[in-house]
Design goal:
alpha/beta, ten-stranded mixed β-sheet, five-stranded antiparallel β-sheet, 22 strands, 47% helix, 12% strand, disordered C terminus, binds magnesium ion
Length: 634
């Protein structure tokens, strides 16, 4: 559709509107989602109380001014106003628009009509609005308010962030190599197959007990498997009823941080079964679950390190174990296998390079910070990006700085030696100061900050590793963070599908609560009467004995039947995704495409238990207030 035509039609339809001025403002290019700092001319103060000054640098052509870093303030949500838009007064004058007159209309009326108009306009333009994106599996979800306009630089991890691998192909190969090695060591692996549905990231391995557990945000174990067998609720309660999952105890608990952990966990759970069956030769390992984990750990960890260099600290542990011959052999084999046939391992996403291009053209400084080495990074990025970029652009053109072999998480914590990659063959030379546009190996996050002259919350880092990418960059540098979690798409769809189930479950639980309340009151009445005391009320004291006991028996039967219905429904009900560490989270980087590089992500209100009553049961509030305001007895 012709944009000018649509805009023209929109303007004509609304020309007689009581909010004429607001329409005219939009025709100047300022849509509803823009965060406007409208300065009141007469008083010189902002109507919202924010009075930051602006510079004259115009990013949006002739239409508006952008608040610069040096002139920025903090808005009413505590976010920086850097990058916010400001009306250009002389532009209004040129169009004959009186900004003061616009503010004379009740803002509620203007906002209501503008919101409706904005929806219609986006629909006419065929553009998916952020509201629709938010309510889909491809939404970007916000835990902590984040203003993209105040972000100067966006850093990206590569593996499973900019490049999504086919889990079955990738993890399947890692599993095959692991099993091949275990077989050569004498482990009984015949008949075992890779089953990616057995585990999911976010679970925790209990290496002492050979279990895989799912814990809630407080560390309580909700479900558990022993080997590949699901444990009953009773067994879970007996084993974990008195203890919490404590991830600081690394000797016992192993958190499955990334999709790379899937093959490791599958191999471990299957070998736990074999150990229980007595099939593992005693000379291979101490016959306990921890010893078994160590044997697998050495094998699979090495493979993960080869594939992604994503566990550099553990990688060093493995090196200490010393299996140089095996390492050299498998490293070469795996890398050449993946690089020679990336189609088999990588899931293409044509929208992703375009999302990054929008960000770059909006003035964001893009960084690639990956633990993978130069050759691997270059090959995989060429494959995933170049064919989807316009003209002759290559992946390197998107990034202001590229850092390979970064050795995260140490990258965020300390300073490693830095090398500049100087030839396309990957030859390097020592380097002491990074410069924009460079390609480096090693170094540190502090070096990135000082060379680009940007700091802390001006940088958004996007990664898939909850600890390495998201937690460490936030804890040590106060960078803003985004977590990429592909499983969200399935989880979101599952939540939507289970809405009816959940509503039915909540209904039943509420009914049980009402029935249970009555039962408890009758029981108390019976208890008091048995002791020769009056019950709670005169009516309860005088209630017929038989009627009282019959009613209680009936209620007990109802509660038991409700339990029989509720228990399996609760069992089938999933838990919510844990979003504690990331400011925003989403399933894939290309989801940024539908939000624009100017999005202001607002977190939803966090509620406590009493809040939900005030939201869902407003009539009770009214009742309580009325009740409290009246003298007792009336
Ligand atoms: Mg990664």
């Amino acid at each position: 559709m012709d944009f000018a035509k649509v805009l023209g039609r929109f303007s004509v339809q609304r020309v007689q509107s009581p909010v004429l001025m607001a329409v005219q403002l939009r025709n100047l290019g300022m849509n509803q989602s823009s965060h406007l700092n409208c300065t009141d001319r007469s008083s010189g103060k902002s109507p919202m109380g924010c009075c930051c000054s602006v510079d004259s640098k115009s990013v949006g052509g002739e239409v508006f001014l952008v608040t610069s870093s040096s002139k920025s303030d903090v808005d009413y949500l505590g976010e920086s106003t850097k990058g916010d838009l400001n009306i250009k007064e002389e532009h209004l004058d040129a169009f004959g628009i009186d900004g003061q007159a616009t503010l004379d209309y009740p803002i509620e009326e203007i906002a209501r009509m503008e919101a409706k108009g904005a929806e219609e306009l986006l629909s006419d333009l065929g553009i998916l609005d952020p509201f629709s994106s938010r309510h889909s599996p491809r939404g970007i979800f916000c835990s902590r308010t984040l203003n993209l306009r105040s972000i100067s630089a966006i850093g990206y991890d590569m593996d499973y962030t900019l490049i999504h691998y086919n889990v079955m192909a990738w993890e399947g190969r890692a599993y095959d190599y692991c099993m091949g090695n275990l077989r050569s060591m004498g482990f009984p692996v015949d008949g075992l197959e890779f089953d990616p549905n057995l585990v999911i990231r976010g679970l925790v391995m209990d290496k002492e007990r050979g279990n895989l557990v799912k814990a809630d945000r407080f560390g309580y174990v909700k479900r558990a498997m022993h080997g590949t067998r699901m444990l009953s609720t009773r067994a879970v309660s007996e084993i974990y009823g008195r203890e919490l999952v404590d991830l600081r105890k690394e000797s016992r608990w192993e958190f499955l941080n990334t999709l790379f952990s899937v093959s490791e966990a599958v191999a471990y759970m299957q070998m736990v079964d074999r150990l229980d069956e007595g099939a593992v030769p005693a000379e291979l390992t101490p016959l306990d679950y921890k010893g078994l984990y160590k044997a697998i750990y050495c094998t699979i960890l090495f493979i993960m390190a080869v594939l992604a260099k994503c566990h550099s600290n553990l990688w060093h542990d493995f090196q200490a174990v010393g299996k140089a011959l095996f390492r050299a052999h498998v490293e070469g084999q795996l890398k050449s296998e993946i690089m020679s046939n990336p189609e088999r391992f990588v899931e293409p996403d044509p929208e992703l390079p375009l999302a990054l291009l929008d960000q770059k053209e909006a003035g964001k400084r893009l960084l690639l910070i990956t633990n993978s080495d130069y050759h691997y990074t270059d090959k995989m990025m060429q494959h995933s990006f170049n064919r989807f970029l316009p003209n002759d652009m290559g992946w390197r053109d998107l990034f202001e700085m590229v850092i390979v072999s970064a050795r995260k998480p140490e990258f965020f914590q300390m300073s490693h030696p830095m090398y500049e990659v100087v030839t396309s063959e990957g030859l390097m030379r020592p380097c002491f100061k990074a410069r924009p546009g460079g390609l480096y190996s090693g170094g540190s996050a502090q070096m990135v900050e000082s060379s680009l002259n940007i700091h802390g919350d001006e940088i958004l880092y996007v990664g898939d590793h909850i600890h390495t990418d998201v937690s460490q960059s936030k804890v040590h540098l106060r960078w803003r963070t985004a977590l990429i979690c592909r499983e969200l798409e399935d989880e979101y769809s599952a939540l939507i599908c289970s809405r009816g189930h959940r509503a039915a479950l909540i209904d039943l639980i509420n009914q049980k609560e009402v029935v249970g309340d009555l039962f408890n009151q009758l029981r108390l009445a019976l208890q008091r009467r048995t002791k020769g005391r009056p019950a709670q009320t005169l009516a309860a004291t005088n209630m017929d004995d038989q009627e009282l006991t019959e009613t209680m028996q009936k209620l007990l039967i109802v509660m038991q039947r409700l339990d029989q219905k509720i228990a399996p429904m609760l069992e089938a009900d999933g838990e919510h995704f844990n979003k504690r560490y990331a400011d925003i989270y989403t399933s894939r980087v290309s989801n940024f495409l539908h939000y624009t590089p100017f999005m202001y992500f607002r977190s939803q209100e966090q509620t406590l238990a009493h809040d939900s009553y005030s939201v869902y049961l407003p009539h009770l509030n009214g009742f309580a207030v009325d009740h409290l305001s009246k003298p007792s007895g009336l």
